[in-house]
Amino acid sequence: MTYHPKSDFMTVMMERGFLADCTDYQGLDEALTKGVVPGYIGFDATAKSLHVGSLIQIMMLHWLQKTGHKPITLMGGGTTKVGDPSFRADERPLLTPAQIDDNISGIKQVFAKYISYDDAPTGALMLNNAEWLDDLNYLDFLRDIGRHFSVNRMLSFESVKSRLDREQSLSFLEFNYMILQAYDFLELNRRYGCLVQFGGSDQWGNIVNGIDLTRRVLDHEIYGLTSPLLTTSDGKKMGKSANGAVWLNADMCAPYEFWQFWRNTTDADVGRFLKLYTEMPLDECDRLGALEGSEINAAKIILANEVTTLCHGAEAAAAAEATAREVFEKGGVGAELPTVTLTLDDFAEVISHGADPDDPNVASTFFIPAHSLFLKAGLVKSGKEAKRLFAENGARINDVLEADITRKFSPSDFSSPIKLSAGKKRHALVQLG
Q1: How confident is the model at residue 190 (pLDDT cuts 50, 70, 90)?
Q2: Count of CB atoms within 10 A of residue 141's CB?
Q3: What's the pTM?
Q4: Phi then psi dihedrals of residue 21, to 5 deg
Q5: Calpha distance 241→250 (Å, rounded)
Q6: Which fold has domain 8-227?
Q7: Which conformational region is residue 293 in: left (phi greater than 0), alpha (psi within -120 to 50 degrees), or beta?
Q8: Domain 254-329 CATH superfamily
Q9: Does residue 7 have a pLDDT over 90?
Q10: C-alpha angle with apex 13: 7 to 15, nearest 5 degrees?
Q11: Taking the alpha carbons of 144, 148, 152, 156 in that order, is the dihedral positive or negative?
């Protein structure tokens, strides 16, 4: 549809590519022009960090505050105990309360880098839905809330329907998730005047449920706005790299690896990602995204620097770029490269059992093969992948092509760190601790 927004926030959402759908474009836009609008996104605590796939939602909260409104980050301390079944083939593993609390502690670290938590009218709130979900009385909840939900309608939502169409089990526990999420929106509206829920387009059904419930129980008008589920131009799911998920916490994904993920963006995605993940002016995003040939590489470095600065700080971004230049342009060993530390337990003893590994005369009888180094460094995921890498001349050790997958390295070879390279873009250091 063609809609010309009046509010700064809706303008940003539309112009920068954040908007997939909205329950009421005009109603939300008018609310945003009348005063401070609280809006929320819920994040279940299924891991100790969010990954790049969640960054589009975090940036939506960033722009909400930047345009004069109030972000609410809702930790799913309660809903994580159930698990969102949306578009999943199987049930999520159940976590203990201690695991959930530990994950929440890790997830919280990233938000303060994107939004400000203070006492200002637009100061963000950090909440946990366990505050109201943990103490619910089951019979009262069924009578007061459950009666507003039609099972027929719940079964029609695509997230549930797709699971049932594949004849995959959907537990009663999971089926309750959408009711609990809807109740979150009701409680946030009742307690904090929250007017809008944001989420990926896969959350559309859950968001609509919350809006309907709040209208029925409180007779309040509230809204939902979804972002597109991003894939890269080559069809890959956003947030995944050759090494797995690209986490937002530095202790789970080093700033250099994070920077390198964005530096490796495909040419066709540069302009789009600049609009979504940076604050750069739109015309500059368009200009950089339109570059071709070798010039687009400069745009990718700008993208990597801007996104890394927001997430990890300007110093980390500068260090990552310096390391990349050292590794790629000069063939050196950059200080910020991912580093794996081996112990003597990682080496296989080839002569005698029970020998003292600290004895210099014995140490040389221990070795580790080249393919194991690449596995331990995370540059390959399996022995089969290692064989293919070596066979296709993609493995380098200290910048020298290595074809022998069984080449043996003893502890004495690690007097200084060994640089491993898988192809042209992925590197790591291995050292002996």
Answers
A1: very high
A2: 15
A3: 0.76
A4: -160, 160
A5: 16
A6: Rossmann fold (3.40.50)
A7: left
A8: Tyrosyl-Transfer RNA Synthetase (1.10.240.10)
A9: yes
A10: 95
A11: negative
